[in-house]
């Protein structure tokens, strides 16, 4: 079965390169998107940390801000 | 009317969903790959080269679907004056563009053993290349223009012009004599593809759709955090 998969009647080089290109594109897109997400999340946490207590409390009134912080801590 | 889609409300779901979608994607992709590479039969004409279909066709379908969705969302954003629609459209674009590139590259790889050439200026292939250029213009516009109103107008204009190309891509194989084969799957009529090949094709389509959903959610969350970052600057 492995021989069949590696040979594919002479078409393996085409089939496996098409699948390989697809999976590599997936991996590349996933890594880039994840890095962008982590970068923005870290920027948010750093900015939030630099706020004075009054501003921090005001920012915390927004549910989404609390969610972002909680997610950052969980990661 | 669209309050249910407000970022503040849906972030709780969109921030937690990616890990579950990733898990599901890995499972469906594993089963799909097993079906596509091992269990599905070879074609009586194309032999094992037909297996390229399982990555080529879903990629083309999804890229066309995403471009249509982006156009619909951009126009709706204008009609209903809802910025979130533009944000959703922007977050869909990267995966649409990547799927378009995958369709072009895997199509070229498939063309070599079946047509004897990597590329032909055939109506279907050329219109897919034009679609990739529209995706690229759309993504570049978001990077170049910073003023919200301007970027909304320009990206919507790009999608409205680009959507003309979508039916041309779909029906190019019927309207012109092309190297590319006509559609084997028809929702309204009986498909000419055998169920032993249709099943892995649908599985791979499901896996690719899950992947685009995953990338969309990650990108959408990034965009929301970017907006909130700007909000903290203004405090």
Written account of the structure:
The complex is a heterodimer of chains A (about 80) and B (about 240). Chain A is built from four helices and no strands. Chain A is mainly α. Chain A has one domain. The longest helix of chain A has about 40 residues, at about 10-50. Chain B has about 240 residues and is mainly alpha-helical. Chain B has a domain at about 60-175. Chain B has eight helices and no strands. The two termini of chain B are about 30 Å apart. In chain B, about 40% of the residues are buried. The model of chain B has no long low-confidence stretch (mean pLDDT about 90). Chains A and B meet through helix 2, helix 3 and helix 4 of A and helix 1, helix 2, helix 3, helix 4 and helix 8 of B.
Provide a short characterization of the protein structure:
The complex is a heterodimer of chains A (75) and B (235). Chain A is an all-alpha fold and 75 residues long.
Features:
heterodimer; A: 75 residues; mainly alpha; B: 235 residues; 8 helices; 77% helix; globular
Largest sheet geometry of chain A: none
- Which word captures the global form of chain A? rod-shaped
Average pLDDT rating of chain B: 92
The low-pLDDT segments of chain B are none
- Helix- and strand-based class of chain B? mainly alpha
What structural class results from the helix and strand content of chain A?
mainly alpha
Oligomer: heterodimer
Shape of chain B: globular
Number of strands of chain B: 0
Helix content of chain B: over 70%
SSE topology string of chain B:
HHHHHHHH
First-to-last CA distance of chain B:
29 Å
Number of discrete helical segments of chain B: 8
Mean pLDDT of chain A: 89
Structural domain tally of chain A: 1
């Amino acid at each position: 079965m492995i021989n069949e998969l590696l040979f594919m009647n002479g078409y393996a080089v085409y089939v496996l390169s098409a699948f390989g290109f697809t999976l590599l594109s997936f991996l590349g897109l996933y890594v880039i998107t994840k890095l962008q997400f982590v970068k923005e999340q870290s920027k948010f946490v750093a900015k939030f940390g630099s706020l004075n207590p009054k501003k921090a409390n005001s920012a915390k009134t927004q549910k989404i801000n609390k969610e972002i912080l909680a997610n950052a801590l969980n990661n | 009317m669209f309050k249910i889609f407000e970022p503040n409300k849906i972030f709780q779901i969109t921030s937690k969903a990616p890990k579950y979608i990733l898990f599901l994607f890995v499972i469906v992709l594993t089963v799909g790959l097993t079906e596509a590479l091992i269990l599905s039969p070879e074609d009586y004409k194309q032999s094992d080269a037909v297996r390229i279909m399982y990555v080529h066709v879903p990629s083309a379908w999804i890229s066309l679907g995403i471009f249509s969705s982006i156009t619909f969302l951009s126009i709706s954003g204008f009609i209903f004056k809802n910025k979130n629609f533009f944000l959703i459209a922007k977050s869909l674009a990267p995966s649409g563009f990547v799927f378009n590139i995958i369709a072009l590259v895997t199509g070229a790889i498939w063309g070599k053993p079946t047509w004897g050439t990597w590329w032909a200026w055939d109506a279907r292939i050329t219109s897919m290349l034009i679609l990739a250029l529209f995706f690229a213009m759309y993504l570049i516009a978001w990077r170049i223009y910073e003023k919200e109103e301007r970027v909304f107008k320009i990206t919507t204009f790009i999608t409205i012009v680009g959507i003309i190309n979508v039916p041309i891509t779909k029906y190019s194989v019927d309207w012109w004599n092309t190297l590319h084969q006509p559609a084997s799957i028809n929702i309204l009529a009986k498909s000419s593809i055998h169920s032993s090949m249709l099943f892995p094709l649908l599985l791979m389509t499901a896996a690719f759709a899950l992947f685009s959903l995953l990338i969309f959610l990650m990108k959408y969350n990034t965009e929301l955090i970017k907006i909130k970052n700007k909000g903290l600057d203004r405090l």
